[in-house]
């Protein structure tokens, strides 16, 4: 449960980072981003697999690039539900979803399954090898 809440907060921070970077994405406050992250998580959990299967042929033809379009659609759908979260334009949604994905992936890579912050400590061993 702790890991779920931590990942939810990470997605919230990623949405706020995308709103800071792009003028076309607006967030009225932390709680708007918090609820947008919740709606985005629900949409990604339930609707994204169905849409991915329905668009699988075009996704294969575009070598997976159509996934960016699906992510943008999910972001635009979330902005339609939350009043304090607004995405203007399709291309803003595409680039914004890319930023949200990268920031969320980077921050989530430090969280293990139990919700604890995890890091790898490397030491230089024998013969210029890192262990």
TrEMBL record:
Coiled coil ranges: none
Bilayer-crossing regions: 29-47, 59-82, 88-107
Pfam families found in the cross-reference section: Phage_holin_4_2 (PF04020)
Keywords, sorted A to Z: Membrane, Transmembrane, Transmembrane helix
Signal peptide: none
Domain of life: Bacteria
Name assigned to this protein: Phage holin family protein
Organism: Desulfuromonas soudanensis
């Amino acid at each position: 449960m702790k890991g779920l809440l931590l990942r939810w907060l990470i997605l919230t921070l990623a949405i706020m980072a995308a709103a800071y970077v792009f003028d076309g994405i607006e967030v009225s406050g932390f709680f708007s981003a918090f609820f947008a992250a919740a709606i985005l998580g629900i949409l990604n959990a339930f609707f994204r697999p169905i849409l991915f299967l329905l668009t699988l042929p075009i996704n294969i033809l575009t070598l997976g690039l159509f996934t960016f379009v699906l992510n943008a659609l999910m972001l635009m759908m979330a902005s339609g539900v939350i009043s304090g979260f607004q995405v203007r334009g399709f291309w803003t949604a595409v680039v914004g979803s890319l930023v949200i994905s990268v920031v969320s992936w980077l921050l989530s890579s430090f969280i293990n399954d139990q919700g604890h912050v995890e890091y790898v400590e490397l030491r230089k061993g024998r013969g210029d090898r890192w262990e």
